[in-house]
UniProtKB/TrEMBL annotation:
Originating species: Bradyrhizobium zhanjiangense
The protein's name in its UniProt record: SDR family NAD(P)-dependent oxidoreductase
One Pfam family linked to the record: adh_short
Position of the signal peptide: none
Bilayer-spanning residue ranges: none
InterPro entries for the chain: NAD(P)-bd_dom_sf, SDR_fam
Length: 247
């Protein structure tokens, strides 16, 4: 029987990237904990993976609330098992002209995409450090590298999350905690992006050119690849984009 590798906790795990990562790590033998604001939205995935013989749990958590994040990690460690992998995947991709960007919108984008990432990463480090191993993932975006028109709020938050990830990697790497920041410099092949493209350009999903969007399964495989790396060749930052993407 394959040795139990432990728990993969995925925070901000929606129906696209989060679900794909859940499938990949469940396939790899991990007990998967999917965490989002409303856990009932992941019931279909829970049923799917349970039927496949995988171990999966769903939790409701607001990653912006310190007490909720701390309770989540405490509950998982106590009731399910040792956390070996942590993914932070939450974000607020808002596009507003600068003069229409309110204080509330700017703060909300930072709070969800950066502050929440700090809270999740810190709690992951707290449970991993005593054991001397673990992997912490952060999902980045094009906005992690450059600020685009209309993205003052989102870009500042993603820039900030990238800085948090870099600081964590430099501090935790020598202690055998692998911190990875994955930049998805592309549209993600998901229902949300399909709807956005239809609303903006009238493009139906069936008319989207093949391989012009990055598949969620490809993103999950990139995370799996990074997690499997040996200590002498760790990747901290990896960027993904389709072959035809302009960059």
């Amino acid at each position: 029987m394959m040795e139990d590798p432990g728990v993969a906790i995925l925070v901000g795990a929606g129906d696209a990237i989060g679900a794909a990562v859940a499938r990949r790590f469940a396939k790899g033998g991990y007990t998967v904990c999917i965490c989002r604001r409303d856990a009932t939205k992941s019931q279909g995935l829970v049923d799917e993976l349970t039927a496949a013989g995988c171990r999966i749990h769903a939790f409701s958590v607001d990653a912006r609330q310190e007490a909720e994040v701390q309770k989540l990690f405490s509950d998982v460690e106590r009731d399910i098992g040792p956390i070996e992998v942590c993914l932070f995947n939450a974000g607020s991709n808002v596009n507003k002209p600068l003069v229409d960007t309110t204080e509330k919108l700017f703060f909300k984008a930072w709070e969800l995409a950066c502050y929440a990432g700090f809270l999740v990463g810190r709690e992951a480090a707290r449970v991993m450090l005593p054991r001397g191993h673990g992997t912490i993932f952060f999902t980045g975006a094009t906005a992690s590298l450059r600020g685009g028109q209309g993205f003052a709020a989102f870009s500042s938050a993603k820039f900030g999350l990238r800085a948090v990830a870099q600081a964590m990697a430099r501090e935790l790497g020598p202690k055998n905690i692998h911190v990875v920041h994955l930049i998805i410099d592309a549209g993600v092949d998901s229902e949300a992006i399909h709807q956005r493209m239809k609303a903006a350009k009238g493009i139906e999903a069936s008319a989207i050119p093949p391989d012009s969007l990055t598949k969620t399964s490809s993103i999950a495989e990139a995370y799996w690849f990074a997690h499997q790396q040996s200590r002498d060749g760790w990747t901290h930052e990896l960027d993904l984009r389709p072959s035809g993407e302009k960059w």
